[in-house]
Amino acid sequence: NAGVTQTPKFRVLKTGQSMTLLCAQDMNHEYMYWYRQDPGMGLRLIHYSVGEGTTAKGEVPDGYNVSRLKKQNFLLGLESAAPSQTSVYFCASVLGGKHNEQFFGPGTRLTVL
Amino acid sequence: GQQLNQSPQSMFIQEGEDVSMNCTSSSIFNTWLWYKQDPGEGPVLLIALYKAGELTSNGRLTAQFGITRKDSFLNISASIPSDVGIYFCAGLRGGSQGNLIFGKGTKLSVKP
Fold first, then answer.
1. Taking CB atoms and an 8 Å cut-off, how many pairs form between chains A and B?
2. B39 part of contact set with chain A, CB < 8 Å
3. Interval B24-39: pLDDT, tens
């Protein structure tokens, strides 16, 4: 199993550009999450999904959109990137039910100029 | 939003020393998780705790689920250089759809 993978690993955008981050998991997990990590702020939840076709807002959803068209994939979109979205983005997944352990991907480092 | 208070924020270790860190909250949690993050990588799960009072070990790491369900502790015995990194606690409340609340981390560094 590859676990949780994220694409791309690094990206530099100009203000106003758009992009999509891809998260994929091969563990048949029900729940998936997108976080951003900034120095001194810990991990903050952007959006999450409790199953294929469902999404919900987390703590810091503004400026981001997500889609979960397939169970194994969770996409994070930035429609018009801003410098404040410069961060490291992590995806995580959970099996669901009684199992609450989140497994994280390796991260995507995004810089918005 | 809800927060976990994790302390200390940072600490320096000398090889062979024991290390302790903890997380506290004003709310009750059903699950406590401890993660370690190395530079440039995602957090890796170390220990999961599901019952109040539970004490669980993973090698030199031992974590406890506080009896009040509002805190958790992580101890590392006989630290080694590869223990350096950032340790995060995370708590889960009932009915939260798997949404974890994370502490801000404890950064372990080697004493100069």
1. 55
2. no
3. 999 999 999 999 999 9
Q: Do A112 and A83 meet the contact criterion of CB atoms below 8 Å apart?
A: yes
- Asked if the Cβ–Cβ distance from A100 to B45 is below 8 Å, we say no
CA–CA separation, B20 and A55 (whole Å): 38
Exposed (0-12), middle (13-18) or buried (19+): which is B50, by Cβ within 10 Å? middle
- The predicted structure's pLDDT at residue B112: 72
The DSSP symbol for A99 reads B
In angstroms, the CA B56 to CA A38 distance is 30
Which amino acid makes up residue A100?
A: N
Q: What is the DSSP letter of A84?
A: G
pLDDT, position B90: 94
Distance of CA A93 to the CA centre of its chain: 10
Contacts of B38 (CB under 8 A, 6+ apart): B44, B85
Contact A59, A49 (CB under 8 A): no
